[in-house]
Amino acid sequence: MDPNTYIVIIATLYGLISLFAGIAVHELGHFLAARFLGIEVSGVSVGFGPEIVGFTDRYGVRWKLAPLPVGGACSFRERPRGKGDRENKLRTLREASLADRAIVLVCGPASNLCFAGLIWLIIFFHTSILPFMPEEEAVFGLPAFLLQLSCAIAFFNLLPIPPLDGGYLVLIAFEKLRGRAVSNEKQLIRAGAWVIAVLTIVTSVLLFAEIASL
């Protein structure tokens, strides 16, 4: 196999693994924060698109893996509890305080940064932690991809554009200042979703072009 082709294949594989891992860590951060604060989660998706594989846990949370590693979702129950849910002590996201909602949002990017920090420690001390890993692989291989893409996911999600975490944090800040929710929140989220879609497509094209040029 041509060395350049091999590099492209390995870089693409490492990139996909790192994207799925970063998304999983991000959504797990939202999930754990929500559960700790008593907010009910209905589903966690790693990737977008049709479900490849999934399961429902004993708490009724649907965990699924989808094929497109361009994002994920931690879904919350939105409708008020019915008469049959009186034993359910968990709240909907809207029933939670603004502070609790902000904590849930922040914990996604925070989890990515913590994960990146852990990977950095593994790279820095790899001779002790992973003595079998060559120096070049530790610095330029999968650990480096995991570190960089986890940081990228964290900072990307902090952009002040709904429906990213940073955008929702801005909406929460406005709600706190005004004393009521933003009236055109749904329109802002739809518009923001289009902006994010364009940014994702452009970034993906540039990334694959960079990999292809190696």
What do you see in this structure?
- The chain has 214 residues and is α+β, with helices and mostly antiparallel strands.
- The protein has one domain (3-212).
- The protein contains seven helices and four strands.
- A four-stranded mixed β-sheet has the order 2-3-1-4.
- α2 runs antiparallel to α5 and α2 runs antiparallel to α6.
- The longest helix has 34 residues, at 3-36.
- The radius of gyration is 19 Å and the shape is globular.
- It starts with a helix and ends with a helix.
- The model has no long low-confidence stretch (mean pLDDT 86).
What's the short story on this structure?
The chain has 214 residues and is an alpha+beta fold. Helices cover 60% and strands 12% of the residues. The longest helix has 34 residues, at 3-36.
Uncertain regions: pLDDT < 50 for 5+ in a row? Answer: none
What is the strand arrangement across the widest sheet? 2-3-1-4
Amino-to-carboxy terminus distance: 15 Å
**Tell me, what's the shape?**
globular
Number of helices: 7
Number of strands: 4
Radius of gyration: 19 Å
* Order of secondary-structure elements: HEEEEHHHHHH
Mean pLDDT: 86
- Name the helicity range: 55-70%
Strand-residue proportion: 5-15%
Whole-number tally of structural domains: 1
User: Could you state the oligomeric state of the chains shown?
Assistant: single chain
Assign the structural class, choosing from mainly alpha, mainly beta, alpha/beta, alpha+beta, or little secondary structure.
Answer: alpha+beta
The biggest beta sheet reads: 4 strands, mixed
